[in-house]
């Protein structure tokens, strides 16, 4: 099939990144994956939830939201509806779990909470995967600032983490689905991977058709390759200290 943007089936959308996007957050970035744009911010607070007190350990939590004009039709602010919806709860818990996997809670300097906020400015598919991948930069920069302030001796970020989507559209397996593809997918899957290529989470659904083990393996192989390229990009940007990046 011919993809709408001319990409190959195993090709990611172009990545663009601007670090330090927000003045007051300890770490932040604008992460763009094709036409999907997510603003990620990480802020360290000086307390933890009651159930965590006395442990000597820190905590990482995440919030996610779609801004009203980020979608084709205006999305109402969830605060006006009284509480976040089920989709929002699911995504922010996924982001939190993914980031906690690569953070040493005992290395945060005490009982501090790292709050990660992921706000979708523009949605064109893959918002949760872009949020996870972009949040890694915000978390890294927040911990770097924490270290520079003398609160910790070394970064408690023990690995990289990235996520990508994969699916089957019109019988073909595609990497990194945009909205037009995702909305017509027969199979839809999100995969989160650490820097060693190990799986952190898999969310897969036969939206319009069941799939067998062979198809699952094909989807996983494609997603692992895409996630590996994103992690390679994370390594390069952080190692070279790049403040902006664009493909």
Features:
247 residues, alpha+beta, 4-stranded antiparallel sheet, 10 strands
Overall shape: globular
Distance between the termini: 24 Å
Number of helices: 4
Secondary-structure element sequence? EEEEHEHEEHEEHE
Explain what the structure shows:
The chain has 247 residues and is of the alpha+beta class. The chain has 4 helices and 10 strands; from the N terminus they run ββββαβαββαββαβ. The chain has helices at residues 86-100, 127-148, 179-182, 213-240, and strands at 15-19, 27-33, 36-45, 59-66, 113-122, 161-169, 172-175, 187-194, 199-205, 244-246. The strands form 2 sheets. Strands 4-5-3-2-1-10 form a 6-stranded mixed sheet. α1 packs across α2 (127-148). The longest helix is centred in the last third of the chain and has 28 residues, at 213-240. It is globular, with a radius of gyration of 18 Å. The mean pLDDT is 95.
Topology:
Elements: E1 15-19, E2 27-33, E3 36-45, E4 59-66, H1 86-100, E5 113-122, H2 127-148, E6 161-169, E7 172-175, H3 179-182, E8 187-194, E9 199-205, H4 213-240, E10 244-246
Parallel strand pairs: 4-5
Antiparallel strand pairs: 1-2, 1-10, 2-3, 3-5, 6-7, 6-8, 8-9
In short:
This protein has 247 residues and is an alpha+beta fold.
């Amino acid at each position: 099939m011919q993809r709408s943007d001319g990409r190959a089936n195993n090709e990611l959308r172009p990545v663009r990144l601007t670090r330090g996007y927000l003045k007051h957050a300890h770490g932040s970035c604008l992460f763009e994956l094709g036409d999907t744009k997510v603003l990620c911010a990480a802020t360290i607070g000086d307390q933890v939830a009651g159930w965590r007190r006395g442990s000597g350990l820190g905590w990482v939590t995440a919030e996610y939201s779609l801004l009203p004009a980020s979608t084709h039709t205006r999305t109402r602010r969830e605060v006006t509806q009284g509480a976040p919806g089920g989709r929002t709860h699911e995504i922010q818990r996924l982001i939190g779990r993914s980031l906690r996997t690569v953070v040493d809670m005992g290395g945060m300097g005490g009982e501090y909470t790292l709050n990660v906020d992921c706000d979708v400015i523009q949605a064109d598919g893959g918002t949760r995967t872009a949020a996870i991948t972009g949040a890694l930069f915000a978390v890294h920069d927040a911990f770097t600032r924490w270290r520079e302030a003398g609160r910790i001796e070394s970064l408690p970020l023990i690995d990289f983490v990235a996520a990508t989507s994969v699916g089957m559209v019109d019988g073909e397996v595609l990497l990194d689905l945009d909205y037009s593809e995702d909305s017509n997918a027969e199979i839809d899957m999100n995969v989160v991977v650490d820097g060693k290529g190990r799986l952190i989470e898999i969310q897969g659904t036969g939206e319009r058709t069941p799939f067998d083990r062979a198809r699952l393996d094909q989807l996983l192989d494609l997603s692992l390759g895409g996630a590996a390229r994103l992690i390679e990009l994370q390594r390069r940007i952080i190692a070279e200290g790049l403040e902006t990046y664009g493909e």
